[in-house]
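Re: the 108-residue chain
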Amino acid sequence: MPAGSNAKEERQYEHIRKGQRKHGASEGRAEEIAARTVNKQRARAGETKTASKTSTRDPKSAYRRGGQRSHEGAQGPTRDQLYAEARKKNIDGRSTMNKAELRKALGR
């Protein structure tokens, strides 16, 4: 935990870290997730010197978003995610489509 954190943040960090380990994350990954979560909440509360825009201005917390922004980066959703969406919409020929074709068929 970063310097200046209080007892509650320390407990929260340990709770998140142990939960991640229980779900199969490596020790390093569990520590990273726990630290990022606690640090984001510290940024929202104004306890840090610097913070990203999403940390301070995002109206929804990460757990409320529920993966809503997953794979919105440069490459977008994975082929498997597009395929699952195409299956829900019952698009014919989806099993032979590549990622670009699935995007086009879904109108993305």
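DSSP finds six helices and no strands in the chain.
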